[in-house]
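Quick one: structure for this chain?
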Amino acid sequence: MLSNSTVWENDMANEEDGKESWDLREWLAKEPKEAITGMYEKTLEFSEEKVSWYLDKIKGKRFVSQTSRVVSFIFLASGTILPLLAGLSDDPGQRLFMTQLGVVSLAVAGLAQVADKAFGWSSGWMRFIKTVTEMEMRTSSFESEWFEYELNKPSLDAEDVLPLFNITKEFRQDLEQMQLVETNGWITEYNAGIAVLETAINSQREKAKKDLKLLRDDYNKKLKESEDALRRGAINLSLT
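Got it. Here's what it folds into:
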C-alpha cells in the first residue's frame, strides 16, 4: 500500500508540476503541430511511468513467490518421504526421529503456504501481471486510435487539438482506473490476509492452551506421586 501511495503522490506532484501542460486552454494556445505532438509524447510518457512501476515491483513479488513455492515443495517432499524411510529402519529410535522430522517438514511447508497467502506474494504477482498486460493493451489501443485519427485527416490544424486532447484524457483516465482496481484488489487481499493470520494464531493459541493443560496435569500427577513415595511409611504396591 505504501508503494501505491507513493506512486499516487508522485503522479499528483507531476500533475501539479505540469498542470498547465494538461490544461486544454494551454494546448489550444500553442501551435497545432506543437500541441498535438506534445500531447502524444506526454501521454506515452505517462503510460510508460505506470507500466514501469509495475514491472519493477513484479520482480520482487515473483522472486518471493517462487521461493516460497520451492520451499513448500521441498519440505512437503521431505515430510512425505521421511516417514516411508522410517518404516524401513529396524532401529526404533531412528524410526521415531525420522517420523518426527517428517512432521516438522510438513509443518514448515504449511507455514510457507500460509505466509504466501497471508502476505499475497503469488496473488500480488498475478495481479500485477494482469494490470500491466491491460495497461499495455490499452496503450496499443490508444496509439491505434490516434494514428487512425491522423490517417483520416489530410492535415491537422487547430480544430483537431480538442478531439485529440479528449482521446488522451480518456486514455489517462482508463490507466488510472486500472490502477485503482488493482489497489482495491490489494486492499481486499490485505484484509483477507489479516483474517488468515488471525485464524492461524487463534488455532495455535487454543492448541497451545490444551497442550499446556495436559503438561501441567501430567506434571502435577507425577509431583504428587513423588511426594507420596517420599512420605514416611508409605508403601507403593503394583498388582498385576
